[in-house]
Give the backbone structure.
Amino acid sequence: MRTHRLHTIVGSVLAIASATGLHSCTETSAADDELLPAESAQVIAVVDGDTIDVQTADGEARVRLIGLDTPEINRDDGQDDCYAQEARDQLNDLIYGKTVQLRADPTQDNVDSYGRMLRHIYIDGQSAAVVLLEAGAAHEYTFDAPYIGQAEHRDAEHAAQADQLGMWGSCQH
């Protein structure tokens, strides 16, 4: 009897989801559909917590991750911002030497004022930016216009802040 009731409930939920067009419970899936096609690249250097060097089929390129900013390494006075090295180390541990997917965002410029490609970076289907934000290694950053996935980035930052993770528990803000 319980099994029959469970099957009925599950069947009803699936029917409602199908009828309403609900295919996923995550914003990332919908956002991924809006991004431009992925380009594979090998990470050859992690410059800091939000900038990497990659090898693509077209050659080497410097890439700035969209949607986050990390503390600066070696400011003008030669000092690192609080948590700068930790942010770089977390990104390094996550993607250095690995193949990642670069996804351009049609809401953003192709390159920034420093000549870096602006891209969402995915490793094993996971947003590198969201991983850093969830760990408290970065804060959400919107340059000029909202980007695809912005709400997920902000949610990840707020969760890290609430739990005092990473820089939110180590640095004065």
